[in-house]
């Protein structure tokens, strides 16, 4: 890993004018030093034994890096010739992402970052799931990273403590949920750090066991501090963030300044469209179904299912491999390293499927993760569309393709740190719809599951904006017309439209409250991908080739939603 105080990256950030791509690479050289979790994700071996500084000083250092990078970008010259286009795209993304990051920092959002997904707490825990475990040196790095957990969590707590004096705090719903999350990890042998010790090489287990015990105590200390110090102060704070803070977070997650009322209205129009489609699909599954939920519950109880978590993992691995075979050379062109993707069982306490990308050298492959949640039965209708989303042609195809072309066309920033949520979640939801367009949901049960997945993301759009802005439910809505959104109204609405247990619905509401603007990226991103495809089709006319367009689109790197349609139309 480069020494950013002495190597050429320092020149790129502080010296004479250079190119945007060189600035982006220099930024990444410095960023992986400040954020070794990111470095480990990329495959930087020296980062695997480290954790970031989440204290106010650590956040200040990352903000200062962003400012220096923007200054260097201002000095960077234009690049003529064949590389001009790649330089332009890199510069646009780098500038937009870093300005958004600094806006959040200047607003003090890092001082109240409590969420059930994506906060420093979850990042620390997740860092261990991707760590290599092949050699004694790998296990020594894990032990050193475990030793750093207490300091990382103390730094996180120091930032939250500073936020108590600046207000507003995180909302009480998020605080309560994170305390519960911590308590589950501490109590569950499979959910905390202890399994790392038991699976390590025997000679290293004593040191690993001691480090895991210290890391687990740090989780307990954080839980008690949140319970006894933070929660009482947060009890009077609103769970909803309001319009101004929502716009900041929406820009961060989606790379656009939204017309929130237009987006809310779009969500409702999609709700009505999908509800009509779901009613037709439900009757194909259960002819006497009164509503889609009845047919979905029937599938959950009596439809095709896989018994056993390991058997479900194997089935999903086979589904992914069959999908690659069906798509490759026909609808997409898969590079050899992109064809490799693994299905894994998610750590205990994980409530939703997710994806992690490959390392830069593909030594660690892309992985899809199946949450078990104590289940032994896995209904198939609920999995097929999800695995198209998380794996192929969804997240894995996009992220692994970025990694594949990063060596020649993209910078590391465009393929990793600069990822825009609305772009990647929009692509993955578009990928589900594309599979429907291509006829892959020929089984009525699978298609109803796909439509339910689309409906879930549509409900996220209306609920997320509605709750944080306290908007009214439209008069033509089938639920609660005229009511203003509250977390309680949102929970009832989701239960009426969701076949999943109440605990899942409750976790969804907390997710929206603690991650304002993230959940809307699925549908709004999908809309931009569809608009971009239609604009390219109109521009190309009879010469439009969907396979070529998809591969060009998947090789552009990350883009914000402000830029996505324009750039997709140019392909």
Report, as a whole number of angstroms, the end-to-end distance: 36 Å
Helix/strand structural class: mainly alpha
Helix content: 55-70%
- Biggest beta sheet attributes: 3 strands, mixed
Number of strands: 5
Explain what the structure shows.
By secondary structure, this protein is mainly alpha-helical. It has three domains: 1-107, no CATH class; 113-237; 250-521, no CATH class. 62% of the residues lie in helices and 3% in strands. The chain is built from 24 helices and five strands. The protein has helices at 8-14, 20-34, 36-42, 56-75, 84-106, 120-127, 136-164, 172-187, 194-199, 205-234, 242-254, 260-285, 292-302, 309-327, 384-390, 395-405, 412-415, 421-437, 444-469, 487-497, 502-514, 521-540, 546-553, 561-569, and strands at residues 305-307, 341-345, 354-356, 366-370, 377-379. Strands 2-4-3 form a three-stranded mixed beta sheet. Helix 12 (260-285) packs antiparallel against helix 19, helix 18 (421-437) packs across helix 22 and helix 20 packs across helix 21 (502-514). The chain starts with 7 loop residues before the first helix and ends with a helix. The model is unreliable at 1-6 (pLDDT under 50).
């Amino acid at each position: 890993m480069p020494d950013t105080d002495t190597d050429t990256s320092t020149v790129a950030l502080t010296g004479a004018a250079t190119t945007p791509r060189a600035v982006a690479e220099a930024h990444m050289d410095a960023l992986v030093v400040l954020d070794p979790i990111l470095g480990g994700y990329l495959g930087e071996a020296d980062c695997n034994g480290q954790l970031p500084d989440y204290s106010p000083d650590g956040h200040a250092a990352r903000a200062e890096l962003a400012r220096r990078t923007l200054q260097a970008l201002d000095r960077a010259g234009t690049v003529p010739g064949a590389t001009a286009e790649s330089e332009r795209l890199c510069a646009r993304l780098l500038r937009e992402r870093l300005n958004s990051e600094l806006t959040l920092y200047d607003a003090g959002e890092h001082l109240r970052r409590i969420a059930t997904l994506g906060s420093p707490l979850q990042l620390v825990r997740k860092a261990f799931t991707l760590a290599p475990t092949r050699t004694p040196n790998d296990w020594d790095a894990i032990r050193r990273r475990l030793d750093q957990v207490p300091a990382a969590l103390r730094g996180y707590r120091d930032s939250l403590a500073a936020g108590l004096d600046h207000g507003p705090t995180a909302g009480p719903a998020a605080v309560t949920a994170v305390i519960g999350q911590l308590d589950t990890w501490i109590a569950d042998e499979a959910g905390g750090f202890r399994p790392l010790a038991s699976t390590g090489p025997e000679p290293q287990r004593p040191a690993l066991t001691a480090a895991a015990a210290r890391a687990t105590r740090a989780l307990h200390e954080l839980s008690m501090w949140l319970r006894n110090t933070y929660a009482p102060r947060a009890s009077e704070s609103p769970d909803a963030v309001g319009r101004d803070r929502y716009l900041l977070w929406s820009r961060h997650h989606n790379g656009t300044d939204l017309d929130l009322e237009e987006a809310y209205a779009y969500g409702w129009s999609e709700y009505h469209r999908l509800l009509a489609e779901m009613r037709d699909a439900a009757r194909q599954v259960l002819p006497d179904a009164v509503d889609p939920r009845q047919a979905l519950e029937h599938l959950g109880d009596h439809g095709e299912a896989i018994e056993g978590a390991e058997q479900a993992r194997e089935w999903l691995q086979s589904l992914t491999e069959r999908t690659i075979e069906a798509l490759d050379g026909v609808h997409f062109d898969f590079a050899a390293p992109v064809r490799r993707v693994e299905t894994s069982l998610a750590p205990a306490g994980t409530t939703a499927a997710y994806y992690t990308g490959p390392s830069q050298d593909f030594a660690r492959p892309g992985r899809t993760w199946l949450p078990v949640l104590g289940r032994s039965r896995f209904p198939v209708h609920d999995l097929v569309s999800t695995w198209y989303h998380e794996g192929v042609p969804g997240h894995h195809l996009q992220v692994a393709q970025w990694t594949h072309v990063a060596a020649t066309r993209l910078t590391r920033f465009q393929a990793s740190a600069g990822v825009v949520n609305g772009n990647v979640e929009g692509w993955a939801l578009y990928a589900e719809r594309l599979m429907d367009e291509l006829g892959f949901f020929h089984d009525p049960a699978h298609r109803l599951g796909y439509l339910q997945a689309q409906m879930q993301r549509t409900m996220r759009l209306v609920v997320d904006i509605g709750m944080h802005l306290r908007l009214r439910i439209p008069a033509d809505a089938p639920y609660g017309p005229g009511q203003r959104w509250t977390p309680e109204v949102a929970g009832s609405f989701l239960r009426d439209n969701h076949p999943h247990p109440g605990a899942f619905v409750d976790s969804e509401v907390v997710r929206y409250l603690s991650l304002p603007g993230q959940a809307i990226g699925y549908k709004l991103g999908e809309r931009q991908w569809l608009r971009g495809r239609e604009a390219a089709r109109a521009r190309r006319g009879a010469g439009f080739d969907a396979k070529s367009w998809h591969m060009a689109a998947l090789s552009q790197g990350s883009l914000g939603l402000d830029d996505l349609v324009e750039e997709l139309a140019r392909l």
